[in-house]
Amino acid sequence: MGSLKSIHHAAVICSDYERSKAFYSETLGLQIIAENFRAERQSWKLDLALPDGSQIELFSFPNPPKRTSRPEARGLRHLAFVVDDIEALKVRLEQKGVPVEDIRVDEYTGRRFAFFRDPDDLPLELYEAAPLALK
User: Fold this and answer.
1) How far is Cα 41 from Cα 30, in angstroms, rounded to an integer?
2) pTM here?
3) Are residues 30 and 83 in the same domain?
C-alpha cells in the first residue's frame, strides 16, 4: 500500500468569484493554471499554483451557504502558506489593503506566523520557513 506524500490542493468556495480571483491571483500572486466555467453547475473553477507545485482550487456556486468559522468551529481551521520573509510579505499585503495580524512566535516550533483573511473571511496564515540546515 502506498503512503501519503504531500498536499496536492486545497479547495475554496467563494461568494464573489471575481473578487476572490483577484485576491488569490493578484494580491497573493498565485499563478493561474486553468479557469473553467461549468455551465451545468453555474460554477467557475479556477486552478492556482504555488511555487512548490501545490494548488488552490477556487470555486464559485450560486448562493453558497455561509460556514461558521469562529469561534473554533469544527472542520478545517485555516490554510497556511510557507514564506521566507514574513515581515516583507506582511507589509506587501497591508499595502494592498489586506489587514494582517501581528507576527507571533509558535511556542513549540519557534517559527513566526501571522494570520490574515480572504474576501470571504477564510482564515489564512503566513508561516515562516524552517532555516536551511548547515552542511
Assistant:
1) 25
2) 0.86
3) no
